[in-house]
Amino acid sequence: MRDQHLLRIIVLTGSDRPDILSAWSDLKAYLSGVRDVEVVGVFSANEQIPEDLIADMVVVLGGDGSILRGCRQLGQRQLPIIGVNLGRLGFLTDLSPAEFRKGLPALKRGQYSIIEHLMFRCSHHQADGSIVTDLGLNEVTVTCGGALKMLDITLRIDDEDVTTFSCDGLIISTPVGSTAHNLSAGGPILRQELKVFAITPICPHTLTIRPIVDSADRIFRLSVKDAPPGVMVVIDGQIRRPLGANEVVEVSRAEPTLKLIRLPGHSYYGTLHRKLGWQGQLDYRERRGQ
Predict the structure, then answer these.
(1) Structural domains of the chain ordered from first start
(2) Which residue has the higher pLDDT, 34 or 88?
């Protein structure tokens, strides 16, 4: 809840897509006529956000991918984020432009909640001894990629060898990411406030292999024995790096968290109902206009 009279916002436009630029032009004109609202900075996907820039919240325009990029832009200083959906599904960017305008008075009055969501740190221990570390929100995926063959992916949790998965890939997902690639691969939907990771194999060779859910306070290590050329480690579907033999991908809980703003009347299960068609049985005949 905010006590200030002036609402200072940062706007992330995410990309140079014409629809996003057009939406920002409209929103900019609208905000210029709203009292006690100040836009303190506007940044595209590749621009650095100054650490000393003072703001109450970040407005992200686009889809969920824009939220993922925005989290990395904010780095260790995660400010409260609200997403305006200009993409397709939009689990994180839950508001339409009209709903954002309607909710702006509540944002100015501080009538909203902030839900903190787990983020992860992915450390890629490379063959030359270097370590590349990334901050992420959705998932880390080890995938056969261009290798086009089944992989033997070894999972180690803390100091214990768990198993070796024979599969096309393996996903380590946060609760926020559980409705993304993890869901498509048959993984569980996790309530977003939980502090756990889901480990989901992609097309496992053994039918008894099933997803695992474990505490986010553990350290997860993945390696691929005899990794063929083309194997990749993918972070949030946006960062891709080759993964070689004798290299290790380490996933652990990050110190910063995603701080997602939730307006009154919006809830996690309400989002699932709307986005996944949980209102009831879908009437496909009606959708075809029959």
Answers:
(1) 7-117+256-287 (3.40.50.10330), 120-253 (2.60.200.30)
(2) 34
